[in-house]
Design a protein that fits this description.
The structure is a homodimer of 451-residue chains. With 451 residues, chain A is α/β, with parallel strands linked by helices. Chain A folds into two domains: 4-192 and 366-450, Zn peptidases (Aminopeptidase), CATH 3.40.630.10; 206-249 and 295-361, Alpha-Beta Plaits (2-Layer Sandwich), CATH 3.30.70. Chain A contains 13 helices and 19 strands. Chain A has helices at 2-12, 14-26, 37-50, 120-137, 159-165, 222-231, 254-261, 267-274, 285-294, 334-347, 371-384, 400-407, 432-450, and strands at residues 54-58, 66-71, 79-85, 106-107, 110-112, 143-149, 174-177, 189-191, 193-205, 211-212, 297-306, 315-316, 319-328, 354-361, 364-365, 389-391, 394-397, 411-413, 429-431. In chain A, the strands form five sheets. In chain A, strands 1-2-6-3-7-18 form a six-stranded mixed sheet, sandwiched between helices. In chain A, strands 9, 11, 13, 14, 15 and 17 form a six-stranded mixed sheet that branches. In chain A, helix 2 runs antiparallel to helix 4 (120-137), helix 4 packs across helix 13 and helix 11 crosses helix 13. Strand 11 of chain A pairs antiparallel with strand 11 (297-306) of chain B, so a sheet runs across the interface.
Chain lengths: 451, 451
């Protein structure tokens, strides 16, 4: 059976794989700062070309390059698409790193560096799984397509036109999303959906310049107007007050609730880590998990007005701003919510506030009942020897909806990460053991998908 | 009559007076930055000593030196006290100055520089008025005391212990406060009182660190708590909601209203300058003036939480803060309001918010009926040849209450400034003509006070 040979190839070449990952980690690619983007895209393309992939840079009117690569199978008409991203979060705060964030240092059986886990480890793991087939069998069991973008960490603002433009090229039967891993007990985690997110900024303006606060009895204060406007969006019980905000929100289905019951929710650990005694509204256990995954939110990300230095200053500011994000659940849409927000503020007398839309992704999920979900779960259980944990929805966001809506395929997210990987944080790393096991998982998945 | 000789002396020495003011302006003394304070105090002391004053540096346990100087009269037991400050506001924004802010440049009949008007011009004008008597008569008509502090621009936080400690030394029959001048029509303005101010900072805390906003359904957001806490302090109609906040507030007396009617309130000009169409609650004319001077306020001076840079960041902040000031009217006290604020926040479920008190001064006023007010007004009208404009209260604040409460004397504020003096702003200046006329005004006041 060829999978045995594929596993042997992976074990025999794991050091070489690690070196390729180290090379990729050493190439900074911080989309937030536009740092090293072109260089990293080139490196990813080179890695694929070396394996015999046909590659292509997909470009919309603007945005960082998307690296596309494909390898067609000689015997299968089925196609599996992989979504990944080569861009990374900024490495700051630098002083908290044990090793230089772009050094790719190997220590304690781990590869350290920004992007090691999120998402370069998954890129290399997936490419190497395909390489293992090519090197041992001279073919791939199914057609393989890689879509590796460079703006995931800044909200994929330019992706939709690219997906639309290259819809045909990207056609596939199913897709594997970018992230995932195992938990402390070694169980593989699968994610079937993502929340949407709508990011906005509210700006209130007063006089044309800051004035002395002695004038407060007569001169409008935009900081107060902002506070009152925000206050009309959500009450102290966390209920969002925008008219018809919850209109399209559904509770989890009974099938989804069964799924939730199997999710190991580390409530105590989370509270301890964050130094909080209770979750909002005292939610706990299954209720907390349902809230986390199935409730939309309205979050203040930032506030700024007037004097914010030491001590006091008797100033009446001329501007005030708040940054907000709304996490959206399936059947809500960012456009709908933006309209409702605008209307609500107007109706409550805050029509003068400027509302700036910073970005949006839509909620989406693949049904638990989709055969592809079953296939991925069974493969994961086979490879890891433990029950798979299925998240019917994740609290996070990403451009998954573009693949669901335009390509109309099931999408499941799995990956080779582990619980102490520190994605988005200092000392990000990837365990070499997880990396190698994850590579075998992807190889097995490709093989099972071909059946 | 000796006053004629005094006037002649002032006219004959005005160039020398201007040079002394230029010297003082050239010495930076920015209390907010601790810049040049000791040097400026020394220079002020030197100016007084040169005139034959007994001088003394008054010090509390902390704070910038207060320069005290006195010249006793050989023929009068009456004492007139002058309150001034040698510290100045920071000169920023520097790029908006026509001349270097500490150059003391003379141009267009004006002395330009930070402090030229506020408050060094008044210091020199007053000292020179006294000098004119000494040089022409060899005596002063009444005992003269100067109290020149160095922390007025930062709220005089260390003054109370000094006043208490040197209460006897400072004993006087009346005091002239630091500021004032003439308006566009040449009418002298008198101020009989000041509002108090209580500056506080509210701090809300959540988790021990910022978290990803995907966690918003469960993790408390201090930015929201701050918004809700602020919202419970004041409503959209500008009504302060703190229980019993208005308990001790009185409307202006009929005598005060008569005074207000004579105040030239530049409503149209103010609106145009600030780019606003209407004052809060549509107030206008006498109503606006009553509101400005007799209503206490609760003002947001600053807001800060989470991400405030460009674009968006999906962060749930762990801290949020607001800076507030309360302007207080006579019979309110900062301690009372601080207690009521604390109680109110607790009662509304915000007892976990930290409330930091940054500073406070108390409201105070000298009654219009005080004979000293009449004397100052009559003298002003005599010198300026126009009706005096009397403000029974000013919208601003300062440590006047310490002089009123501990020395128990009438205090009236007058000065040698003019409408385009730009105090606290770029291109601060003092018209030489106003400076010289103001010096004669003070000399006449000393003479009249002696009668």
């Amino acid at each position: 059976m060829s999978l045995q040979k594929v596993y042997e190839y992976i074990d025999g070449h794991s050091e070489e794989f690690v070196q390729d990952l180290v090379r990729l980690v050493k190439q900074p690619s911080v989309s937030a700062k536009g740092e090293g983007i072109e260089e990293c895209a080139k490196l990813v393309e080179e890695l694929m070309a070396k394996m015999g992939f046909s590659t292509k840079i997909l470009k919309g009117r603007k945005g960082n390059p998307v690296v596309y690569g494909e390898k067609l199978s000689q015997k299968s008409s089925k196609t599996l698409l992989f979504y990944n991203h080569y861009d990374v979060q900024p490495p700051e705060p630098l002083e908290e790193w044990k090793y230089e964030p772009f050094s790719g240092t190997i220590a304690d059986g781990k590869i350290y560096g920004r992007g090691a886990s999120d998402n370069k480890g998954n890129i290399v793991s997936r490419l190497k799984a395909v390489q293992a087939f090519l090197e041992t069998t001279g073919d791939v069991p199914v057609n393989i397509k890689f879509f590796i973008e460079g703006e995931e960490e800044i909200g994929s603002p330019n992706l939709e036109p690219v997906i639309k433009k290259f819809k045909k090229l990207l056609s596939a039967d199913a897709a594997i999303w970018e992230f995932g891993g195992t938990d402390r007990r070694g169980r593989p985690h699968l994610y079937l959906g993502l929340k949407g997110v709508l990011s906005v900024e509210l700006k209130a303006k007063g006089a044309v310049k800051d004035v002395h606060s002695a004038n407060a009895p007569l001169i409008p204060n935009p900081a107060w107007r902002l506070v009152w406007a925000l206050n009309c969006l959500k009450d102290g019980e966390e209920k969002i007050l925008i008219e018809k905000f919850y209109e399209h929100v559904s509770p989890p289905s009974s099938e989804e609730i069964e799924c939730l019951k199997t999710i190991p929710f580390e409530e105590k650990e989370t509270k301890k880590e964050l130094g909080i005694k209770r979750f909002l509204r005292g939610k706990s256990g299954l209720e907390a998990l349902k809230t986390l995954l199935y409730e939309p939110t309205c979050t203040i990300n930032g506030l700024l007005s007037g004097y914010t230095g030491k001590g006091s200053k008797t100033v009446l500011p001329c501007e005030a701003m708040a940054k907000l994000d709304f996490r959206l659940v399936p059947n809500q849409s960012s456009e709908e919510i933006f309209k409702k927000l605008t209307k609500h503020l107007k109706r409550h007398g805050f029509g003068d506030l400027e509302i700036i839309k910073h970005g949006a992704t839509e909620p989406t999920k693949t049904p638990i009942s989709d055969p592809f979900v079953k296939l991925v779960a069974e493969t994961a259980e086979k490879v890891y020897g433990k029950n798979a944990v299925i998240y019917p929805l994740s609290a996070g966001s990403g451009p998954m909806h573009l693949f669901r809506n335009f390509l109309r395929i099931p999408v499941v997210s799995v990956g080779c990460s582990h619980p102490e990987a520190n994605a988005h944080a200092p000392n990000e790393n990837l365990k070499i053991e997880s990396f190698v096991r994850g590579t075998k998982f992807i190889a097995t998945l490709i093989s099972d998908f071909a059946q």
